[in-house]
């Protein structure tokens, strides 16, 4: 087995994920089969970012170093046979960015140990990586509150003949999400042409920019959902949801070479129309308690004086300002209270058109069945619940993947000392049904609530009709 039988690095408490500004401590273990002459035993801790213009290439064209510290844990001498343990400790800078690994670059942190031997003797070295997570708090992003919306108008051309236009409007319910949260996508398609459109699709996109001499853009579709078509001259409101899979955070604060962006792309296959809705992916979800209030200004104190009560309630010797109102109300005849007419019989329940659709945000497969302007699902056009195009395991250097999605601002990063990829091995477990309620089929949609709506629109029955019935 040679002189060196064991040479390894161990972190205290088997911790593998750290935060900026934290200390990393551990032990270097050397087990020798016989004594070994050495000049020094050193431990190094460093962090850097390297990028390239070739996919999966480790010959970096540009590098950026965040810290590089080396300490000597044993001086020149002879290491006796047996086991030796050398403790070490390093301080991680507070400005170090989050770990990341992509196709054209990565941000790496590691601890290395070296045994320098005399000339013509074999040197020994070992290393162990660790991960750094700088929490990205969505509540600290400027202009994060509200919805992300956009609209586009596209000319519809068929056989080189312009047949009309298609207006596409879309929005998301928020601008920031954490893994396992749900993106509510709402799109309105107005087909002002004489031909049906293609299927509508919403995709969660990731774009990573590597700042080489000529920037490299790596774009991929993470997940997508697909709906039906819109017939000629019809307008349809389409609602769907995308569950955010484990993803690296949007902001790599402290890194100047890699930039990560996310957006939802809503598109039609025919005509070729597309819009994007930018959003952020973070580690700390939005807290509604921190949302700035937009309360309306209270009415002026003089406003109630314009609506003076009737003379019966006005006291004697009222001010001159109230006298005109009192005389005016005195000349107005007082009518006896009228009884409310008997309501008309409630009509039978009827299905609503797709332009006023109030179905859940994740409609079942029967959503387009019989809807105005929507293609029947029996035509072979499935309404996908979610298609995950990229496996979560592809993001091996994203330690935020296994963080709980309900982490509150300022909370401790629980579970950092666990296994590094405990949340990346089972992506399907992150997709529970919304509020544990299965979608309601279209056939079970209840009739409108006539207490709060404008129904019925028919005139109320006359007195004779009411008496006869």
From TrEMBL:
One Pfam family this sequence matches: Arrestin_C
Composition bias type Polar residues, residue spans: 384-394
Biased composition (Pro residues): 334-348
Annotated region described as Disordered, given as residue ranges: 289-469
CC per GO annotation: cytoplasm
SMART domains assigned to the protein according to its UniProt record, in alphabetical order: Arrestin_C
Name of the protein: Arrestin domain-containing protein 1a
Species annotation: Scomber scombrus (Atlantic mackerel)
Lineage start: Eukaryota, Metazoa, Chordata, Craniata, Vertebrata
């Amino acid at each position: 087995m040679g002189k060196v039988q064991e040479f390894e690095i161990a972190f205290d408490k088997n911790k593998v994920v750290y935060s900026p500004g934290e200390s990393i401590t551990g032990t270097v273990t050397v087990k020798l089969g016989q004594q070994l002459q050495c000049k020094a035993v050193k431990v190094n801790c460093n962090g850097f970012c390297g990028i390239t213009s070739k996919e999966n290439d480790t010959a970096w064209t540009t590098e950026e170093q965040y810290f590089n510290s080396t300490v000597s844990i044993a001086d020149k001498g002879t290491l006796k046979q047996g086991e030796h343990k050398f403790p070490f400790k390093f301080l991680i800078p507070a400005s170090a960015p989050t770990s990341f690994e992509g196709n054209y670059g990565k941000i790496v942190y590691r601890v290395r140990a070296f045994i320098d031997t005399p000339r013509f003797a074999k040197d020994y070295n070992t290393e162990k990586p660790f991960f750094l997570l700088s929490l990205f708090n969505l509540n600290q992003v400027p202009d994060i509150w509200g919805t992300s919306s956009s609209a586009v108008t596209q000319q519809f051309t068929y056989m080189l003949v312009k047949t009309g236009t298609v207006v596409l409007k879309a929005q998301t319910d928020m601008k920031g999400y954490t893994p396992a949260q749900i993106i509510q996508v709402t799109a309105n398609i107005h087909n002002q042409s004489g031909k049906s459109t293609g299927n509508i699709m919403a995709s969660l996109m990731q774009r990573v920019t590597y700042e080489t001499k000529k920037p490299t853009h790596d774009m991929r579709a993470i997940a997508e959902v697909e709906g039906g078509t819109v017939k000629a001259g019809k307008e349809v409101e389409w609602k769907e949801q995308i569950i955010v899979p484990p993803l690296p955070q949007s902001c790599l604060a402290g890194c100047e070479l890699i930039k990560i962006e996310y957006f939802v792309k809503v598109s039609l296959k025919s005509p070729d129309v597309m819009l994007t809705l930018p959003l952020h992916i973070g580690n700390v979800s939005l807290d509604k308690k921190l949302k700035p209030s937009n309360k309306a200004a209270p009415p002026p104190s003089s406003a109630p004086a314009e609506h003076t009560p009737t003379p019966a309630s006005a006291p004697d010797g009222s001010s001159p300002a109230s006298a005109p109102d009192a005389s005016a109300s005195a000349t107005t005849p007082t009518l006896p209270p009228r009884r409310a007419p008997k309501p008309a019989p409630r009509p039978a329940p009827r299905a609503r058109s797709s332009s006023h659709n109030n179905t859940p945000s994740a409609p079942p497969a029967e959503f387009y069945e019989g809807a105005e302007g929507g293609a029947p699902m029996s035509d072979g056009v499935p309404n996908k619940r979610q298609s995950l195009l990229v496996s979560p395991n592809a993001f091996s250097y994203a330690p935020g993947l296994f963080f709980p999605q309900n982490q509150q601002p300022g909370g401790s990063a629980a579970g950092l000392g666990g296994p590094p990829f405990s949340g990346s091995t089972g992506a399907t477990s992150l997709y529970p049904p919304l509020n544990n309620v299965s979608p309601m089929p279209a056939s079970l949609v209840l009739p409108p609530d006539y207490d709060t709506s404008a129904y019925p629109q028919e005139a109320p029955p006359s007195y004779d009709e009411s008496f006869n019935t």
